[in-house]
């Protein structure tokens, strides 16, 4: 993954989303073209908003339990969590500007 994003796993997921800091989780897979398009915008947001939002990348092929638990039916799916609770769900690729608008209410 990128230098500013965190790699999540089934084992670490609950800990990663449990923070008071908003956490955007990107559910993705290696074979998914639209998922790969999200790498750069997510990496840039993670760098630009360090300390305001955490970006976690979770490979659904390697971590199927979490994807099933949260009902991820298509990818890319991005979810914003705060204190362990899902606050927002985005399905499909977005531009950096669109992502910034979607997370605006969660970051200061």
Q: CATH H level: which superfamily?
A: Glutaredoxin
Spans with pLDDT under 50 lasting ≥5 residues?
Answer: none
Total of DSSP H or I helical runs spanning 4+ residues? 5
CATH architecture: 3-Layer(aba) Sandwich
Give the CA-based shape: globular
Give short descriptive properties of this protein.
alpha/beta; 31% helix; 108 residues; 5 strands; Glutaredoxin; five-stranded mixed sheet; globular
Characterise the protein shown here.
The protein is an alpha/beta fold. The protein has a single domain, classed as 3-Layer(aba) Sandwich (Glutaredoxin), CATH 3.40.30.10. 31% of the residues lie in helices and 25% in strands. The chain has 5 helices and 5 strands. The chain has helices at residues 13-17, 33-37, 39-48, 64-69, 96-103, and strands at 6-7, 23-28, 54-59, 77-82, 85-91. The longest helix is centred in the middle third of the chain and has 10 residues, at 39-48. The relative contact order is 0.25. The mean pLDDT is 95.
Give a nutshell description of this structure.
With 108 residues, the protein is an alpha/beta fold.
Produce the secondary structure layout.
Layout: E1 6-7, H1 13-17, E2 23-28, H2 33-37, H3 39-48, E3 54-59, H4 64-69, E4 77-82, E5 85-91, H5 96-103
Parallel strand pairs: 1-3, 2-3
Antiparallel strand pairs: 2-4, 4-5
């Amino acid at each position: 993954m990128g230098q500013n994003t965190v790699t999540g796993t089934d084992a670490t997921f609950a800990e990663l989303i449990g923070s008071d800091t908003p956490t955007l989780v990107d559910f993705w897979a290696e074979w998914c073209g639209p998922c790969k398009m999200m790498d750069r915008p997510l990496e840039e947001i993670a760098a630009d908003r360090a300390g305001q939002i955490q970006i976690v990348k979770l490979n659904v092929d390697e971590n199927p339990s979490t994807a099933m638990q949260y009902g991820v039916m298509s990818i890319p799916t991005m979810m914003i969590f705060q204190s362990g609770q899902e606050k927002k769900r985005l399905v499909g690729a977005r531009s950096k500007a669109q992502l910034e608008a979607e997370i605006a209410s969660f970051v200061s």
